[in-house]
Design goal:
Mean pLDDT: 81
Oligomer: single chain
Shape: rod-shaped
Largest sheet: 7 strands, mixed
Helix content: 10-25%
Structural class: alpha+beta
Strand content: 25-35%
Order of helices and strands: HEEEEEEEHHEEHH
Number of strands: 9
Radius of gyration: 34 Å
Distance between the termini: 97 Å
């Protein structure tokens, strides 16, 4: 999973006006309490990988389920967004729809440390733990991880895309019969000429039948 930023940066001064910051006060702290919500947001920048991703400003549809548990709030959700990119074989633009699912626990700041780290003493695990801040949580790092992990590493316009001609760069899907005459390796050209000369000499030295000799009387 892509490495998240440190916890201090993740939860520093959350702004309730941010489209990816959610308020859990209406949910309360009673274990088992549920709340469902949907929200359309503009995609933040860098939501993807080199060849494909969600364009900045594109609409991302979020469906969330918030559940109050002993340790905090369990967030389960689905994100849907349009993807844009290019085929790794023929470099043609491509577009498709992304659907990414995710689930994350946001712990209460005053939750028992033992319940958060399961007595492992693993500092890395504690660093990755997400916390509520004034009953708010930031979904952006979770959304970013979910989207990136759902992307194809080698996006193609179609599964059997033949790619580009290695000699001239033409897109082979547009010209299935495209081909080039086989070039003669210059290293063999001299040998090929010598072989033809030897063959011609052998023909000239082939004995003729006596009846074919023009000098015979």
């Amino acid at each position: 999973m892509p490495q998240r930023r440190k916890q201090e940066a993740l939860n520093a001064r959350l702004d309730h006006r941010s489209p990816l910051v959610f308020d859990t006060r209406e949910l309360g702290r009673s274990p088992g309490a549920l709340k469902r919500l949907s929200r359309s947001i503009e995609a933040p920048g860098d939501l993807g990988i080199e060849m494909i991703g969600v364009r900045k400003g594109a609409t991302v549809e979020l469906d969330l389920r918030l559940e109050s548990v002993m340790e905090g709030v369990l967030v389960t959700g689905t994100a849907r967004a349009p993807l844009t990119g290019e085929c790794v074989r023929c470099l043609e633009p491509l577009g498709r729809e992304l659907e990414a699912e995710f689930q994350e626990m946001y712990s209460y700041p005053d939750a028992d440390d033992r319940s958060r780290t399961a007595d492992t003493g693993d500092d890395a695990e504690e660093e990755d733990t997400l916390f509520l801040e004034d009953d708010l949580f930031d979904l952006e790092p979770v959304l970013r991880d979910a989207v990136v992990l759902s992307l194809p590493l080698q996006p193609v316009c179609q599964e059997d895309c033949p790619g580009l001609c290695p000699e001239c760069g033409v897109r082979l899907a547009d010209d299935p019969d495209h081909h080039h005459q086989e070039a003669v390796d210059i290293r063999w050209a001299a040998l090929q000429g010598l072989a033809e000369t030897v063959q011609d000499g052998e023909k000239d030295n082939t004995p003729r039948a006596s009846g074919d000799d023009p000098q015979e009387k």
